[in-house]
């Protein structure tokens, strides 16, 4: 079970950035767990698509995420940072969500300042709550955790409608409120990433790399040089899987079952049959 939160928190102090790929279900998490990452990232986008068959548009609930987090953390060794959208409500709901995620085994929680219902951070039209309300929510989340090593990732979506300066100021105030990691969603140029790093020097910054999203894809070394020490790829594997699924289903529909794939024995190993035999 994912328990080594202290190690991950100490890892944030190192210069080498943490790379956290997105996982979204049991199979993706099991495979990622063997790949020697410092952390994994459970995105609301991925869970909404894989669990609910719906887009990342406010359909997820805290119960949905609790189920997925606890299921994954029962088998994972790698620390899991889990998306919590808006905290699924106001301050009372956010406090409850922090408690739920911590008890479920996550190593950290991500909370954003969008209005409800939220939408994916790389889809236009996002609206945010007031700066004061957002800071109050992050302060409440920090105070609610029982384990000081449980990470609070504070995200702002203010860039789109209120500009970069407002997003940076929110990040600064989230950090002052006790957030461990600051996530300014979807900067729209390399220069904006650089401006964030310069303005928030000394703060642990998260960069979200989404191919085809609103932000440019930047090299890890470049992001690290700018000051970003936590880099996530929330949908990269899911997008690759979707391409493979489209191809495989089309081939099966055409009567072709010869496409390259893992063997049944390998697949059974990946889903955990070998470990289950030991119990």
Automatic annotation (TrEMBL):
Sorted keywords for this record are: Lyase, Metal-binding
List GO molecular-function terms, semicolon-separated.
Answer: lyase activity
CDD domains named in the record: ICL_PEPM (cd00377)
Cite the InterPro entries for this sequence. Answer: ICL/PEPM (IPR039556), Pyrv/PenolPyrv_kinase-like_dom (IPR015813), Pyrv_kinase-like_dom_sf (IPR040442)
Taxonomically, which superkingdom?
Answer: Bacteria
State one Pfam family annotation: PEP_mutase
Whether Metal-binding counts among this entry's keywords is yes
PANTHER family per record: CARBOXYVINYL-CARBOXYPHOSPHONATE PHOSPHORYLMUTASE, CHLOROPLASTIC, PHOSPHOENOLPYRUVATE CARBOXYLASE
What is the recorded name of this protein?
Isocitrate lyase/PEP mutase family protein
Q: Which organism is it from?
A: Candidatus Marimicrobium litorale
């Amino acid at each position: 079970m994912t328990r080594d939160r202290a190690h991950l928190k100490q890892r944030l102090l190192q210069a080498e950035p943490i790379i956290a790929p997105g996982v979204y279900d049991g199979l993706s998490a099991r495979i990622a767990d063997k790949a020697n990452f410092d952390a994994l990232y459970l995105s609301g986008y991925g869970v909404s698509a894989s669990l609910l068959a719906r887009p990342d548009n406010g359909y997820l609930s805290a119960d949905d995420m609790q189920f997925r987090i606890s299921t994954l953390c029962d088998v994972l060794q790698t620390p899991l940072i889990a998306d919590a959208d808006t905290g699924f409500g106001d301050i009372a709901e956010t406090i409850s969500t922090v408690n739920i995620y911590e008890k479920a085994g996550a190593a950290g929680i991500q909370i954003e300042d969008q209005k409800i219902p939220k939408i994916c951070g790389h889809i236009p039209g996002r609206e945010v709550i007031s700066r004061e309300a957002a800071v109050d929510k992050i302060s409440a989340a920090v105070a609610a955790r029982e384990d000081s090593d449980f990470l609070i990732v504070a995200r702002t979506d203010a860039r789109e409608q209120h500009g970069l300066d407002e997003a940076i100021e929110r990040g600064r105030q989230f950090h002052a409120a006790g957030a461990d990691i600051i996530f300014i969603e979807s900067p729209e140029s390399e220069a904006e990433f650089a401006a964030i790093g310069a303005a928030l020097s000394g703060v642990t910054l998260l960069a979200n790399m989404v191919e085809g999203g609103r932000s440019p894809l930047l090299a890890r070394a470049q992001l690290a040089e700018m000051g970003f020490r936590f880099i996530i790829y929330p949908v990269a594997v899911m997008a690759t899987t979707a391409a493979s699924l489209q191809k495989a289903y089309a081939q099966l529909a055409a009567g072709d079952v010869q496409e390259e794939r893992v063997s049944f024995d390998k697949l059974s190993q990946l889903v955990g049959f070998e470990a289950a035999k030991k119990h």
